[in-house]
């Protein structure tokens, strides 16, 4: 929820980022297609994991994931399940996570690591920062603008929290894009194939389904449905329960459930069982937890499928609902697109095929499709491509509380965004100068059954007899699916001021404060990175010069001068000198070699040539 | 709380006020307007996501929502032709209301084998309502049209409930 209007200029370089529950990655439009941005090892997927190592380092991605077993209580994953929600709403979710979650201000979840408490936005920002760095290294230029994807089912609070995370990571998020819409863009890159597509997106932690109508480059979402708490992690959880049940009572079951090490080891084992069962009919597990016991277990695919059947059925119910909401029948779906790693489970594909009578498309890697699609939208926003236009919908109805605790719906779910509605309010008592509004999102009739997004206070109403002031309040849902509220007193024309207290996520003040913190940290990060860069450069210079010296035949006095400078730099390296001293050492060496560079090169070349001739 | 009506959807689409709109033409017009006004295609003008651009895009989306559904279109048209006509004609014939109540009960207790037959009947009633409404609008009889619109609500609701059952 925001009351600010952003007016960013048109940037040229915009990346698409899939900020996933399990993995995150970036992609960029390239020619007619799109490509994912890989790290130095050629790996596109960055695990959405952050580890606050006891030695003070903050690890992100693969390095962090590697610490899952050694520091389970300091390694944060699946943060997307917590973002934009309250501790109360999370229920027993925190109990299943090996890292400690505490209730912070306004009952918002905080990850506690030592003395410090981290908001889900800050953890997500650390992941986004890594994605940004990887993209910058792959592209060789700074990245400042991005399109970030969220599950279509994310509500206002979760979207705003994701935008805040991007801002904290130093990214200007030009658009929040729904993941199924992004996937559809990835499949119909040139938008030339008209028709109706169903996108089934089953990721690690969330499930989304969207029905899209593709019409001459316009990707119009007709309906969307889903479950923010259903994904492959739940399949793992079911397998994990089997493993825990088979664990001998050495430490006692209750003990095992409390032990972060056991939880994490079981989680890992369950995941590998699931992956094996996608291709094999049965999978064996031998898990040795040392003093904590050992398990030998065989799971057949039939057993696994029986366990997950109710979950798969829940996704199919969502599909039914989405098709119905789109005003269509199942047979009117032309194409079925699969996204998310969990669609690799054979049962998911089989059930979907059975329901829709069509073979789902699997041409684009389900792990990469969302980022690729986001990069296409990014290119549109960069102003490079005007042929495509995604038109998305709001996933949940928005309303305000009326007398008696009922919710009056103002904007219905599946309305195409941007969308707006204006309502007029008045006062209940004489000389009242402020009106309170509670905004809710959800489908239920009573306020207590919907999510309260926040509290609006309209101020500056002229003191008049009750019922006379007329305050027109406009609720506008922008293209990110985020609510913006403006108000005007009709008689005086005065813009009423609105104070927003969000129920979830960060207040604007908190975001500003964290931004300042992150700028300070960014300065520290920059200094640290520069030190590493200078060190690498110095090491390379020492090695390179020594090689050249060995090759070149220099007069003794020149050889001596160069050797002296190399030795001096080597000493600085050995003494762990700071960046400034190393820089000076490099400069000194460069000065010495510059005067004789030509000689060294020609001499080295001459020597190389001679060796060549002798060899032949 | 009083609802402030959205701008005239016919004007937003640059169309003459009429109940008879060709669906395909309407859709083409919607796609064209969206391309012209959607904030995503106008980042270069540095207007970005400013409220005015969003508001215009919202108007187009909201007008499309009204125009594409013949019943919502009729309602908007009536309000434009004769503001207050719908409010004036809220009171329906008690005989009709008794029938409507009976119909609702029939839907609530319909057995599976009765559903298709009931659906055919209700669809017929809704189609006939629309025909009547068009004729009344063509004659300029806004009060009769308003009553038809109110009455038809019961038929459409019954059909909806029937669909929800199966």
What are the SSEs and their pairings?
The complex is a heterodimer of chains A (616) and B (166).
Chain A lengths: L13 E6 L3 E8 L2 E4 L9 E2 L2 E3 L5 E3 L1 H4 L9 E2 L10 H4 L2 H4 L4 E3 L5 E5 L2 E3 L1 H20 L5 E6 L5 H13 L3 E7 H9 L7 E8 L4 E9 L2 E10 L4 H15 L6 H6 L1 H20 L2 E7 L5 E7 H25 L9 E5 L6 H11 L12 H13 L7 E3 L6 E4 L5 E5 L7 E7 L9 E7 L9 E9 L11 E7 L5 E7 L7 E6 L5 H44 L4 H19 L4 H37 L1
Chain B lengths: L1 E3 L4 H4 L10 H15 L13 H18 L1 H12 L3 H4 L5 H15 L6 H25 L2 H24 L1
Helix pairs in contact in B: 2-3, 3-4, 4-8, 6-8, 7-8
How would you explain this protein's 3D organization?
The complex is a heterodimer of chains A (616) and B (166). Chain A is of the alpha+beta class and 616 residues long. In chain A, 40% of the residues lie in helices and 25% in strands. Chain A has four domains: 14-231 and 307-391, ATPase, nucleotide binding domain (Nucleotidyltransferase, domain 5), CATH 3.30.420.40; 232-306, Actin, Chain A, domain 4; 398-506, Substrate Binding Domain Of DNAk, Chain A, domain 1 (Sandwich); 510-615, Substrate Binding Domain Of Dnak, Chain:A, Domain 2 (Up-down Bundle). In chain A, a hairpin with a 5-residue loop joins β16 (282-288) and β17 (294-300). The radius of gyration of chain A is 29 Å and the shape is globular. Chain B contains eight helices and one strand; from the N terminus they run βαααααααα. The longest helix of chain B has 25 residues, at 115-139. Chain B has 166 residues and is mainly α.
> What structural class results from the helix and strand content of chain A?
alpha+beta
Number of helices of chain A: 15
Q: Structural class of the secondary elements of chain B?
A: mainly alpha
User: What is the ordering of alpha helices and beta strands of chain B?
Assistant: EHHHHHHHH
Tell me what portion of residues of chain A adopts beta-strand conformation: 15-25%
Low-confidence stretches of chain A: 3-10
Which chains have the largest interface? A-B, 41 and 31 residues
**Overall pLDDT metric of chain A:** 84
CATH architecture of the largest domain in chain B: Up-down Bundle
User: Would you state the CATH class of the largest domain in chain B?
Assistant: Mainly Alpha
Beta-strand fraction estimate of chain B: under 5%
Biggest sheet layout of chain A: 6 strands, mixed
Number of strands of chain B: 1
């Amino acid at each position: 929820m925001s009351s600010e209007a952003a007016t960013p200029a048109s940037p040229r370089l915009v990346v698409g980022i899939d900020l996933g529950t399990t993995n995150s990655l970036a992609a960029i439009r390239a020619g007619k297609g799109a490509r994912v941005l890989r790290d130095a090892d050629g790996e596109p997927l960055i695990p959405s994991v952050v580890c606050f190592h006891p030695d003070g380092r903050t690890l992100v991605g693969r390095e962090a994931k590697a610490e899952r077993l050694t520091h389970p209580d300091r390694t944060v994953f699946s943060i997307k399940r917590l973002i934009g929600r309250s501790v109360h709403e999370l229920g027993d979710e925190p109990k299943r996570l090996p890292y400690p979650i505490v209730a912070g201000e306004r009952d918002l979840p905080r990850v506690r690591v030592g003395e410090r408490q981290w908001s889900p936005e800050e953890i997500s920002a650390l992941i986004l920062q890594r994605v940004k760095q990887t993209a910058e290294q792959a592209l060789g230029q700074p990245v400042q603008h991005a399109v970030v994807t969220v599950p279509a089912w994310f509500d206002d609070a979760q979207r705003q929290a994701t935008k805040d995370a991007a801002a904290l990571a130093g990214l200007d998020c030009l658009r929040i894009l729904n993941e199924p819409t992004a996937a559809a863009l990835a499949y119909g890159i040139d938008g030339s194939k008209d028709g109706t597509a169903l996108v089934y997106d089953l990721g690690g932690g969330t499930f989304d389904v969207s029905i899209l109508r593709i019409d001459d480059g316009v990707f119009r979402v007709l309906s969307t449905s889903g479950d923010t708490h259903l994904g492959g992690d739940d399949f793992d959880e079911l397998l994990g329960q089997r493993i825990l049940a088979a664990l001998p009572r050495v430490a006692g079951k209750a003990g095992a459930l409390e032990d972060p090490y056991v939880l994490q080891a079981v989680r890992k084992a369950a995941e590998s069982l699931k992956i094996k069962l996608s291709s094999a009919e049965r999978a064996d597990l031998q898990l040795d937890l040392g003093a904590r016991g050992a398990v030998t277990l065989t799971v057949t695919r039939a057993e696994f499928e029986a366990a997950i059947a109710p979950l798969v059925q829940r996704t199919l119910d969502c599909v039914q609902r989405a098709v119905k909401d789109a005003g269509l029948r199942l047979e009117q779906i032309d194409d079925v697109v699969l996204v998310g790693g969990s669609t690799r489970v054979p049962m998911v594909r089989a059930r979907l095929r059975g329901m829709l009578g069509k073979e789902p498309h699997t041409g684009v890697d389900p792990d990469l499709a969302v980022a690729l699609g986001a990069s296409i939208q990014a290119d549109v926003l960069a102003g490079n491509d005007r042929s495509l236009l995604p038109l998305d919908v709001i996933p949940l109805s928005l309303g305000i509380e009326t007398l008696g605790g009922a919710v009056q719906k103002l904007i219905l779910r599946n309305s195409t965004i941007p969308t707006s509605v204006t309502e007029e309010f008045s006062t209940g008592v004489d000389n009242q100068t402020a009106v309170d509004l509670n905004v809710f999102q959800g489908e239920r009739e009573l306020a207590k059954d919907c999510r309260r997004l926040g509290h609006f206070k309209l101020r500056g109403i002229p003191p008049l007899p009750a019922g006379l002031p007329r305050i027109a309040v406009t609720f506008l849902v922008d293209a990110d699916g985020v609510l913006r509220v403006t108000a005007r007193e009709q008689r005086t024309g005065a813009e009423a001021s609105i104070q927003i207290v969000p129920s979830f996520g960060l207040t604007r003040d908190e975001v500003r404060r964290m931004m300042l913190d992150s700028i300070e940290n960014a300065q520290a990060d920059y200094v640290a990175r520069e030190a590493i860069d200078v060190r690498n450069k110095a090491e390379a210079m020492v090695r390179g010069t020594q090689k050249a010296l060995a090759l070149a035949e220099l007069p003794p006095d020149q050889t001596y001068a160069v050797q002296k400078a190399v030795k001096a730099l080597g000493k600085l390296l050995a003494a762990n000198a700071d960046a400034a001293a190393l820089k000076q050492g490099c400069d000194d060496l460069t000065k010495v070699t510059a005067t004789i560079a030509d000689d060294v090169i020609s001499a080295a070349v001459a020597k190389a040539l001679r060796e060549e001739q002798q060899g032949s | 709380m009083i609802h402030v009506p959205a701008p005239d959807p016919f004007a937003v689409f640059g169309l003459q006020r009429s109940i008879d709109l060709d669906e395909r033409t309407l859709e083409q017009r919607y796609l064209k307007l969206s391309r012209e006004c959607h904030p995503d295609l106008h980042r270069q003008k540095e207007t970005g996501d400013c409220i005015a651009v969003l508001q215009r895009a919202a108007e187009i989306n909201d007008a499309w929502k009204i125009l594409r559904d013949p019943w919502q279109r009729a309602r908007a048209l009536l309000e434009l032709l004769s503001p207050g006509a719908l409010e004036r004609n809220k009171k329906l014939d008690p005989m009709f209301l008794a029938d409507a109540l009976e119909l609702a009960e029939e839907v609530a207790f319909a057995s599976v084998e009765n559903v298709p037959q009931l659906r055919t009947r209700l669809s017929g009633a809704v189609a006939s309502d629309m025909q009547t409404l068009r004729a009344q609008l063509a004659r300029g009889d806004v009060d009769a049209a308003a009553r038809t619109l109110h009455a038809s609500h019961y038929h459409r609701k019954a059909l909806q409930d029937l669909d929800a059952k199966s």
